Amino acid sequence: KDIGVIESIIIGWVISEGHLGKDKCIISQVNKKVLINLKNLVEFYYGKCNAKIYPDKLAFKLVLPNIFVSYFNNRFDIPLGKKSRLIRIPKQIIGGNSEIKHAFLAAYIEGDGTFSHDNSKYLKRPRISITTYSKQFAEDCNSLFHSLGYTAHIYKSKIYENKISFHRSDNISKFYMY
């Protein structure tokens, strides 16, 4: 079964900020409004499912029931437990159309990416970056960006981290105006 845009957004959040535990899927975020919107998307796409939002230390968490753990794990190969070194972009997204790819990347960047600027000698340039421990995920992101016509680069930011970023203002405008 093909993936839709809404499910692609949900998967972007699960991979960026989610955790598949033994009996629930938890997506953490500082901004509660983001989780309310995500909960609404989940319930719109999958139906009423007893998803709940709770306070969590200095943030909030969206808790999805156990059925989502096996679904995300089996359908999209999202690893259970600690996943930072194991994540990959699911094949349904890699093989999806440009809307699917953009939706996934936008959700992932909103959850775990950064939008900042480079200070060059003469100007400040905008930059979108993703930092990950998974070399395979970095390569997946890079090929996804390239398949959409963006010039992205991978480089080591720290000893165990891979960073994917693109800088050109026209690329960034095109990405966010898609």
Protein described:
With 178 residues, this protein is an alpha+beta fold. Helix content is 45%, strand content 28%. It contains seven helices and eight strands, in the order αββαββαααββαββα. The protein has helices at 5-17, 32-46, 66-76, 91-94, 98-112, 135-147, 169-177, and strands at residues 18-20, 24-29, 52-56, 59-65, 113-119, 124-132, 153-158, 161-166. It has a four-stranded antiparallel sheet. Strand 3 (52-56) and strand 4 form a beta hairpin. The longest helix has 15 residues, at 32-46. The two termini are 25 Å apart. The model has no long low-confidence stretch (mean pLDDT 89).
**SSE run:** HEEHEEHHHEEHEEH
Pairing-aware structural class of the strands and helices? alpha+beta
Poorly predicted ranges = none
- Largest sheet properties: 4 strands, antiparallel
Shape: globular
Contiguous helical run count = 7
Determine the fraction of residues in helical runs and give it as a percent range: 40-55%
Radius of gyration: 16 Å
Instruction: Give the end-to-end Cα distance, rounded to a whole number of Å.
Output: 25 Å
Strand fraction: 25-35%
**What's the mean pLDDT score?**
89
- Strand order in space, largest sheet: 1-2-4-3
Number of strands: 8
Question: What is shown here, in short?
Answer:
45% of the residues lie in helices and 28% in strands.
